[in-house]
Amino acid sequence: MSLSTAPTAKLTLLNKISCAIFGNVYNPQGIRTGNKILRQRLVGPTINAYYPNVKQIKLREITRMVPEMNLVDQEEKLRLEDLSERKKRGKGPPKKGQGRRSTLKKK
Description:
- This protein has 107 residues and is mostly helical.
- It is built from 6 helices and no strands.
- The longest helix is centred in the N-terminal third of the chain and has 18 residues, at 5-22.
- The protein is elongated.
- The termini are far apart.
- The mean pLDDT is 87.
């Protein structure tokens, strides 16, 4: 054994034992392992804890559960009225099979 190889071999062995004792990753080549990112705290639970876990009950769900209350959804009623007005003007959705794609095939 020469003098120059003995200390490097002992130093690598010392580094390996040191990593085993202190729980570090032994990486003599210095290759990127992503260990720094994997040790970081996860962000997901913090974000979930920030927003309250409140389920909003919609009027449609209430009317399905209790139909004898005869509740009327004003937004849905307004939407249906607007839809019927558009159909009267000829601006509503086309009947099934009469849309733009079917007219392109006929040409």
